[in-house]
Amino acid sequence: MVTINRPMFDPQEFDTFGCHPFENDPSTPDRIARQVYVERQVSSWNVNMKDGSQLQFWGFKDPTISGSDSPWPSKIIRVKQGQIFHCMFKPSKGAHTIHWHGIEPTPMNDGVGHTSFEVKSSYTYQWCAHQAGTYLYHCHKNTVLHFEMGMYGVLIIDPVTKSPDTNNPNYLYDPLPGDSAPGITAGAPYSAESILVFDDVDPRWHTLDHNAGMCGDDVGLDKFNPKYFLINGVHNGRTQTDAKTVTKATAGWNVMLRIANASYSRLHVTLPFNCYIVEVDGRPLRTNPAKGWFSSPKYMAAGSKLEVGVAQRYAIWVPKIAAGSHSITGNFHHWITNNKHADGTAIAKINAA
């Protein structure tokens, strides 16, 4: 037997994959013609909290749009299934990345800095939109801190097909021959859409440096004590009246509710209507013998509670919503004890008339 002696750790390897990951601006490998093009640039700004205090946030602005300097969550990106997507990314404030959460592109285009690189000046991400569904995009440099600082947005891949029913013009996914499910027509067409991103904020974290905790220094990233609770960047004192968190729908038509958890809490969402879970984390729950029997939409009776994990997404199909005001209630619970946080309730609405 031959024994090869080596150090307990390789300083160069630690330098690359530890607190100083590789920074570069390579050309996009195998770059091809695009169908969708967006730009994103890192921005910082102050946000008013429920008690009137201000905290600094970071996010991805669209530099092509005037007045987009304070996007939280960052602007929604929508792509159609099958399209080639390009995003020109310019960090502008140190090195950052964009990770396309749930898309699973090539490593060079996945934005996970410690397995590829962190963008120093600019890079064009490229991937193909393979599966219609609900996703997120977020920074993957010093991930746990930068996600809390607000560097995330919703990414939606829409199907190619549009419903011929003018009352329900959109599908969640492309319907296929053989699709069937109780109470749901093929593909789940809908006429109104509510997108709700729940988040919590620990003000101490928003005083930390860009690289805090990356080099083994203990800055308390294992201690998260949220004081503020929001939906779509709106604090819970205004979520029942703000246009960002109140959706208008037509009674008797179908509604699509997309829920994402950007908090570090165990999120319990109470659904006020009879509905179906039709997608989880970008994957449809469809009933189709030709596609196999591994999944099907899950019925949720009015009053049911849905627990949503960190960075998890659900699509909820509400058939023929009844007239009235419907409250979607999110309760934030401690990630270890599961005890509800003080003031940890945020309520959004869907008003159908």
Automatic annotation (TrEMBL):
Gene Ontology molecular function, alphabetical: copper ion binding
SUPFAM superfamilies reported in the protein's UniProt record: Cupredoxins (SSF49503)
Domain Plastocyanin-like: from-to ranges: 93-159
Cross-referenced Gene3D superfamilies: Cupredoxins - blue copper proteins
Pfam (any one): Cu-oxidase_3
Name of the protein: Plastocyanin-like domain-containing protein
